[in-house]
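Sample 1 of the test manifest.
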Amino acid sequence: MSNPTAVLDEVMESEPPQEHSEPTILSGPSVARSAEFPAWIREQQATAWSQFEALPFPNRKDQAWRFSSVDALDLSPYTQGPKLTETQRTEMLDRSVALDQVAGRLIFADEQLLRRDPLPEALVKRGVLLMPLERALLEHEDLFRRHFMAQPATLGSAKFAALHQAWVSSGTFVYVPRGVVVDLPIEIFHWLHAENAAVFPHIILIADELSQVTVIEHFRSAHRERAGFACGVNDLVVGQGAKVNYICAQNWNEKVLSVQMNTTTVSREASGLSLNVNLGGAYSRFESLSRLTGQGARSDLLAVSVTDGTQEFDARTLQDHICPHTTSDLLYKNALTDRARNTFGGLIRVEPHAHFTDAYQTVRNLLLSDDAEANSMPGLEILADNVKCSHGATSGQINEDEMFYLLSRGIPLPVARQLLVSGFLNEVVDRLDHPAITALVHDLIEAKFARR
Amino acid sequence: MVNQASPLELERNVGNFAYPETHTHDAGVGLTEKTIHYIADIKEDPDWVRQFRLNAYKTFLSKPMPTHWASKDLEAIVFDNIRYYLSGGVQPKRNWEDVPDDVKRTFERLGIPEQERKFLAGVEAQFDSEAVYSNIKKAVGEQGVIFVGSREGLKDHPEIFRKWFGKVIPTGDNKFSALNSAVFSGGSFIYVPPGVKVKHPLQAYFRINAENFGQFERTLIICDEGSELTYMEGCTAPKFNTATLHSAVVELVAMKGAKLQYITVQNWSANVFNLVTKRGIAHEDAEVKWIDCNIGSRLTMKYPGVIMKGRRARGEVLSIALAGDGQHQDTGAKMVHAADETTSNIISKSISIGKGRATYRGLVHIPKHLKNCKNNTECDALLINSTSRTDTYPAITVRGTGNSVQHEASVSQVSAEQIFYMQQRGLTEAQAMSLSVNGFVNDLVRQFPMEYSVELKRLIELEMEGSVG
């Protein structure tokens, strides 16, 4: 099983910060870094860069950024991190420990691929692909072109999506052919290493008809005190009857600014489940678009967050029901303490003719201090009938009776508190049908408590 | 879908008639500083009111249209095509006999004098820009209750009204509150002295008769310590092809321990933009309750709010919206908790029929360091046809460990099983449908005063008959 103490051993203060004078990301992507890319992608990136420059900066008056601390989004310090030295690489590889058993593994640090643990021979023979993005765009151009950022970012971060597209230079490409079941999870690590480094994590995951796959991404910082910027995009495509689990374990240090944009497209009779664990980051924004495009499609959107200090977590979601007879179920639970802020802006949209939709949205905030702040904007837009839709949002605190019960049994206050918070969050984590990952997520959450 | 000859249309059209205009005062088309001086001259406004209007006009010009979050339909309003002031004189009559014949006929057709005799403590009837009739029953007046128009209120009782005028809703609150502050005319100013409990409701009736007209009434109600009041307003207008604008500002003040209930039954014709700002302040132990029923208009944007300023204050919004073809009912509530142990409750039910669109938009704000504040929000939407639309956009901010909020919303349609069951028992589909819809709103409608709940039930029954098949 996993070993949380090793995972979270981030105390590396002895190493002096590296000096480098790369131009910041706001001066535009360097030509050198995409020199070996085909012309069409370089054109796309150039277009994306001009879009980034043209699009306005987020404004709190915009509903998509309401309640969000947009002032935190100052991108001027961030640069492309320098190439890691051999010792740094070895050290990062040694620290990339999470799941014991995986089908394959990719490890990135500051946008550089450090290692690829290939898939077992049996899966490779059946046509399963796991490769860096830059190879996929040469070898599987068709699939790449069809799915790479195919959905426009509609939840507010169009500007960041353009920035990502202009800068992205590596990432993960996973393809599972028809009928193939990948039992063990595929694991990906993204490390932020250098001071003020910017990374642009990307994953394209295509699960063809009737296939099954689970992918877990870890977002971590090599050093506790170094600032960084992460701007990631996911394209998850769940083919007919396929089943995809995607887990994002966001555990950046508390200086990192992150914006993550996920799109999941779920086809007929298919099931897509995503679980987001948000523990780190000074400011982290997470946008999740779930498109249900075929009858019988089901999407589960799960998230837990534990925020303290002055951390801010900003989640925006859209459950887009495009086809009749589809189901989506969102459950977000947030535990906030100190001066943490949390914003949830979610929408269930039932398009015209998407009758017989079942859509649910539940947000629960647990406020553990007087200065914690929770903003909830659960929304519904229903343009069809014969639908069952509901949403609920609550904000409250620890139940005094439950606390009293635990204290009266001799359990000290901090432990009792942690037990109750864990109990609150477990409802979400336990929805995941994958014991090893569930255990890992529990460990990550506990380690976060232990750090306090 | 809705058949022209259905009884429903008759019902909706109860206000769809107009008499020729005989206004002696007309500010002309469009809005400039001259328009404002014209209005202020006619009304013989004190200087501070004139200045207030002029400042508000500047604010109005500087504010953008809220189209970044609201319906794009707002862009259909052309401020230059609207007439901002029309009246036949500024002094309302105390007797129905003195009201000019055509205006009297208007209100008689709407049944106002009859209702006054039956169950009201006082009535004000506004025709375009000014009240044509205003009366309060002698016994109520003798208790010290003041019930006048905005002009008299500011002119004759500045010591009472000036203190709160524009304080609950500042001029710059939004573009339309600024517009109202610039050109307001008519509306009610009410003061209930300490301890006075007004047994019967006071009522105002707002009528738009002229085409291309904007009605901007201004209402300020102050319930002094321990007093109680119920106020009702009704609205109708004839159906014109051009857009008519109704943009009111309503401010309520409930002093310590007062109870104030404000009931609106809005049945504007389908060409009216109804953009209203309504807010109340509840002091210690006071209660402000909005009962808001929106049936008419092309676009309604109205979010009655309560600021709970004193301990144990209570705010409540009960809202029913019915959106038919071509209508968008964008309604909701704002609850701002500003003291310990304050509680608020929002219950909203909407029904979308045909191509109608109903939207709930809400705000609940509980700042930090408050203890034992509670909010409950329930929004239920019923969709009748496959082309109907409903949206819910709440925004809830909570800080601190002492407070709790819960928000729930559901969307459903009339269950096929229910309809089948009732049809099997011999009801027609339309009867079954209207029974089912009435069941959906029943618990809310029961809280309305008798006369209104009966009316509303009938309206829903008729609406349903037209919508089936």
